[in-house]
Amino acid sequence: MTDYSGVLDELVRGEWVQPDTGRRQAVPIEAVAIRDSLDGAEAELIVARHAGESLVVVSDPFTHEALGRRVFRALEVAGLSVTEYVWETPRCSDEGVEVVREATRDRDALIAVGSGTVSDTVKYASWLDGRPYSVFPTSPMNAYTTSTASVAFDGFKKSITCHSARGVFFDLSVLARCPPRLVSAAYADVICRTTSQVDWLMSHLLFGSTYSSTPYALLAIDESAMIDGAAALLAGEIDALGKLTRIAAIMGLGTTFTESTHSGSMHEHMISHYIDMFAGERHPGSSHGEQVGVATVTMSRLQNDVLASESAPEFGATAIPERWMRERFETNMAENLIEQSRRKALDATQADALNARLVDEWPQIRETLLAVMLPFDTLWDSMGAAGCRRTATELGLDPAFYREAVGNARWIRDRFGMLDVAGDSVGSVQLDAYADQMPV
Known about the structure:
single chain, alpha/beta, Rossmann fold, Dehydroquinate synthase-like, alpha domain, 2 domains, four-stranded parallel beta sheet, globular
């Protein structure tokens, strides 16, 4: 049996050494397993993390058939105190969290079996109740190893820091049978490393904000091989799937290393969040990973365009469209967006000071950012090989709304990135023109 846990085992044991500091790095998850099969090992894995606890296996109708029933029966046969809850209409919202809390209230610990919706709901619900949980994923995405949950409150999606799973157990034979669309979406969701890192590192270089290279040193272990093996993913090759799953698990752990989601969630994620928050009836039913993939293509094109110039971008004062926000959005949401935007807005004095700095510093800043950015053609080709959706049209999204999302996503969070550079620019690359002219 092949075990793809690799460096994750070193992190769990607290033995992995950060290359830039020489310090040992540990993670709060007690166990991560990535094997070609876990069939027959389910009870052993759970007993090691939840001995003596009464358990409930939480899945939805699809993930119950894919894996949930098997996990429940394995725990039952092993003589554990276990029940199961098949959640018929899963939605990771404040209402959905309350449904899961009520349905599982008489159990000591929860075992999630499913994709991001089930996992994040169980994560947040168990944290609210002070109960532990573990998870058997049914897709190779990065949400399982994070200590955050993405939950919708009154339509506004928030990333909430809560707690990590005790154990995360990937069965690659199950993941290989998941719909190819989910594998493609998982690939799209981790290839955004390139745009997230450029945005976060740029914010650090321009404003001295917190930044950590640790997540990227870990992601670099597998990224090149993952890109080279992109086409093999759709063929169901276990080795390619194992590498994708490992890099997804590492990406999820970025919150552990940095105490934030910045390392894997910058402006490409803000575009996806804008789609979920405001598309309404125009939403095509696309997944988070698919949307992030399309937004990553958009952000990569913009980043490549800006960094192609040897001349520094020229900033003007930030013009927050407060009147438009109040007319466009419900009052509480509009005020929240305005507050987020004000935190990173530049006034005229700050813009002038930044422009003066960039006269001397831009060559080094540009060189540093180019060193961590994937060339656009590499990104585009690898995503195509992995079957990812790369344009709004392929996503099934109205092109006019997608242009709106790109033009306005910068206002939903206080994270500074390349949309802000283009939005505040008085130079050659300006956001409104870019959004109007970009391929969709």
